[in-house]
Specification:
By secondary structure, the chain is α/β, with parallel strands linked by helices. Helices cover 36% and strands 13% of the residues. The chain folds into three domains: 135 residues, Rossmann fold (3-Layer(aba) Sandwich), CATH 3.40.50; 84 residues, Arc Repressor Mutant, subunit A (Orthogonal Bundle); 129 residues, 3-Layer(aba) Sandwich (Rossmann fold). The protein contains 13 helices and 14 strands.
Length: 409
């Protein structure tokens, strides 16, 4: 499997709520495993990002930045100091001396404290040269370390881009929770020139901004209503319908679903799938419990579930990590699976095989996903748009032993 290079993402020019101060290199996928590289590794092709040597470091840093500017690796607005020193592998004093020299030599505009540095336009490459330098494709995600399944499904894309001399880079700025991320996105796009963007677990305002700006963008997820961007996604709605049918066969008529607090398109489809399954036996109830991606939130949801007089007899999980908290919380209270509560997980992870009783879950087809995504990303990079239809990819059911008869039935 080819290595996937990740990009240190957070722009230090963003405000505290939108930027992490402890960003470091995310991971390198090697032999199918994720491992953390040194934070001082330059992430990207050595041909496009010149590394400063440890001889006359200020001078070498100046040369590296000149290369980046000339090749279009950075755009008119430079990234913040934190990101630059991490990418270059130099200290703050060395970086500031190099930036001062670039300003004195007429590469950068003079700037006041707290303002972002800007490159003089006559130092920027022509649009034709920028295209020839093969800008990277950027994967925008809220996760600092990507899920193994995500890396597998991006493998064909990474390989195909590498054949073109491009990189696939992962960035995770702290802007996914912002109600109004528009200014931060504008700054992010300017400081990270890219051939195309891939959005993952993005908010409705983020999707809408990319759509309205007509930036070459692909969704590794479902779009929000009114967002006409190309996508490939697992078919969560059909997986939920199938899960609901399995539960209905065991007399479950009240099903709980544990999902993230933002009402995302995938969750809407999952709820509809469960409701369709219940409709096959004349109806039932779906109760939604919210999760903010923390174990504490999952525990609170379980406490709420078991406090109900007419509680759900089955729970559908929408995030793999929820399973860990569910099992530990239920075990600590002597609640049996599936005798007291049936469980089924729509996503999966490699460690699911370690659980007993075996978990009922759904597994995507990573090869099909990878191929379909790569086709669309390459078309987007080459033409600026995607003519292929968006696709929902079916998931495979893995039968376990966590679905049983409804309690008291």
């Amino acid at each position: 499997m080819s290595d996937i290079n990740a990009l240190v993402a957070a722009d230090s020019s963003l405000p505290p709520e939108a930027s992490g101060r402890n960003e470091s290199a995310r991971f390198v996928l090697s032999s199918g495993l994720a491992s953390l590289p040194s934070p001082k590794v330059i992430l990207g092709s050595p041909a496009t990002e010149h590394l400063p040597k440890r001889v006359s470091l200020v001078h070498e840093t100046v040369l590296a930045l000149k290369d980046w500017i000339s090749q279009g690796v950075v755009d008119e607005i430079l990234p913040g100091e934190f990101e630059l020193k991490e990418r270059l592998g130099v200290g703050r004093d060395t970086l500031r001396l190099a930036l001062k020299q670039l300003t004195d030599e007429g590469w950068l505009f003079p700037t006041a404290q707290g303002q972002q540095r800007r490159v003089r336009k006559d130092r920027l490459p022509s649009r034709k040269k920028i295209v020839s330098e093969q800008r990277p494709v950027l994967f925008l995600s809220p996760f600092e370390i990507e899920h193994r399944q995500t890396l597998l499904e991006m493998e064909d894309t990474q390989t195909a881009l590498a054949e073109q001399g491009r990189a696939l880079r992962f960035i995770s700025p702290k802007i996914f929770q912002l109600a109004h991320p528009e200014k931060h996105l504008e700054r992010l796009v300017k400081t990270h020139p890219a051939a195309a963007w891939i959005l993952y677990v993005s908010s409705e305002p983020m999707q809408r901004w990319f759509f309205q700006q007509k930036i070459p963008t692909f969704l590794y997820e479902l779009p929000f209503p009114g967002i006409e961007l190309p996508y490939v996604s697992s078919d969560w709605g059909e997986a939920a319908f199938h899960a609901g049918v399995q539960l209905v066969r065991h007399k479950h008529r009240h099903i709980g679903v544990l999902e993230y607090h933002e009402r995302r398109p995938g969750f809407v489809e999952e709820e509809r799938g469960l409701e369709r399954a219940l409709a096959t036996v004349g109806g039932g109830r779906v109760t939604v419990f919210k999760d903010d991606r923390t174990p504490e939130a999952v525990a609170r949801a379980l406490e709420s579930l078991f406090s109900l007089r007419d509680r759900p007899t089955a729970l559908v999980l929408t995030r793999a990590a929820q399973l860990l908290t569910c099992y530990s919380w239920l075990t600590a209270r002597g609640i049996r699976v599936p005798a007291d509560l049936s469980l089924v997980s729509l996503p999966n992870d490699s460690w699911f095989s370690e659980f007993y009783p075996p978990v009922c879950y759904y597994q995507p087809d990573p090869k099909a996903m990878s191929r379909l995504i790569a086709q669309r990303i390459l078309e987007l990079v080459e033409t600026g748009r995607v003519t292929r239809k968006s696709v929902l990819v079916p998931m495979n059911y893995v039968s376990g032993a966590t679905i049983g008869p409804a309690s008291g039935k």
